[in-house]
């Protein structure tokens, strides 16, 4: 009884627990030397079923052949990163922290790639290669009158007549005037059909239409169209720097994985070859 109490007190001591845990980690880490980390990744039927089962739970449907290949390749990538983490001694082989190890190696690759910041010439080169990403879309400024399909027998005909009669139309839950909005924004407000029709109009001081929205029919007075343009590099330099840094990190990971993948033999089930 006395001896059991001593053992309980000894194990409850945080210093003792730390020493025991550290010793266990040291022993376990010694069991996984570089020579024992296989470069052969074999995917069995049970592993494929586990991966596809998890996918089914998330997507609520069966994966097709392309989906299955993508799932397995993602697993292969994780497995290779996991083994390289072990090979580099980043941590011990513990299934609970497998994902953490994969992330650690990924972050390490990214950090190494971005130690040296990109200079202005590299940023300008990136800007030139991806210039359309920085295009400012055309902006539309307009007002409209709304004719409800819920409250009118023929809302389209009423809207067409209002081009001449100047009838006020019906109350509208959103704005009656919009200034400097892109087609993407207008699409979000009034729907695809309205945005497409608006893009085909010319700016005029008189009402045009009628055009249909997700809510009904409208007459539109398109006051101004600000043309699409690409800003000068200096104006978007901060954004270019962020985008370029992200691209460097992404490319570094992709290049590193391709290099690692070439060192491994992956054995697939016949139906995935």
List keywords for this structure.
single chain, 3 domains, 273 residues, 10 helices, alpha+beta, 14% strand
Structure commentary:
The protein is an alpha+beta fold. The protein folds into three domains: 1-31; 37-134 and 232-273, no CATH class; 136-226, Roll (Chitinase A, domain 3). The protein has ten helices and six strands; from the N terminus they run ααβααααβαβααββαβ. Strands 3-2-5-4 form a four-stranded antiparallel beta sheet. The chain has a two-stranded parallel sheet with strand order 1-6. A hairpin with a 3-residue loop joins strand 4 (208-212) and strand 5 (216-226). The radius of gyration is 31 Å and the shape is elongated. The termini are far apart.
Secondary-structure map:
Elements: H1 2-12, H2 14-30, E1 40-42, H3 45-59, H4 65-87, H5 98-113, H6 120-129, E2 139-148, H7 155-165, E3 177-182, H8 183-190, H9 192-199, E4 208-212, E5 216-226, H10 237-263, E6 265-267
Parallel strand pairs: 1-6
Antiparallel strand pairs: 2-3, 2-5, 4-5
Helix pairs in contact: 3-4, 4-5, 5-10, 6-10, 8-9
Summary, kept brief:
This protein has 273 residues and is an alpha+beta fold. The chain contains ten helices and six strands; from the N terminus they run H-H-E-H-H-H-H-E-H-E-H-H-E-E-H-E. Helix 8 packs across helix 9 (192-199).
Instruction: Spell the H/E element sequence.
Output: HHEHHHHEHEHHEEHE
Helix and strand content put the structural class at alpha+beta
Proportion of residues in β-strands: 5-15%
Number of helical segments with 4 or more residues: 10
Low-confidence stretches: 1-33
Query: Kindly, what is the distance between the CA atoms of the first and last residues, rounded to a whole number of angstroms?
Result: 63 Å
Average predicted local confidence, pLDDT: 82
Q: How would a textbook summarize the main sheet?
A: 4 strands, antiparallel
Number of DSSP-assigned strands: 6
The strands making up the biggest β-sheet line up spatially as: 3-2-5-4
Instruction: Give me the Rg, rounded.
Output: 31 Å
How helix-rich are the residues, as a percent range? 40-55%
The domain tally reads 3
The general outline is elongated
């Amino acid at each position: 009884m006395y001896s059991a109490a001593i053992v309980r007190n000894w194990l409850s001591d945080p210093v003792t627990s730390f020493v025991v845990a550290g010793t266990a980690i040291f022993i376990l880490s010694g069991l996984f030397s570089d020579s024992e980390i296989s470069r052969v990744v074999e995917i069995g039927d049970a592993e494929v079923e586990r991966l596809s089962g998890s996918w089914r739970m998330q997507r609520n449907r069966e994966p097709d052949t392309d989906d299955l290949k993508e799932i397995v390749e993602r697993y292969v990538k994780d497995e290779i990163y996991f083994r390289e983490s072990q090979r580099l001694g980043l941590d011990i082989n513990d299934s609970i922290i497998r994902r953490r190890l994969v992330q650690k190696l990924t972050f390490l690759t990214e950090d190494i790639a971005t130690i040296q910041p990109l200079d202005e010439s590299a940023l300008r080169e990136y800007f030139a290669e991806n210039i359309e990403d920085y295009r400012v879309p055309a902006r539309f400024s307009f007002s409209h009158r709304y004719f409800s399909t819920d409250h009118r027998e023929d809302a389209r005909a009423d809207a067409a007549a209002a081009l001449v009669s100047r009838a006020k139309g019906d109350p509208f839950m959103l704005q009656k005037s919009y200034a400097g909005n892109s087609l993407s924004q207008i699409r979000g407000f009034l729907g695809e059909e309205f945005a497409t029709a608006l893009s085909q109009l010319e700016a005029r001081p008189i009402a045009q239409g009628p055009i249909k929205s997700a809510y009904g029919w409208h007459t539109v007075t398109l006051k101004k169209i600000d043309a699409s343009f690409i800003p000068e590099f200096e104006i978007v330099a901060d954004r270019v720097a962020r985008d370029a840094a992200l691209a460097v990190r992404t490319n570094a990971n992709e290049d590193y994985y391709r290099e690692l993948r070439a060192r491994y033999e992956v054995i697939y089930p016949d139906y995935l070859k």
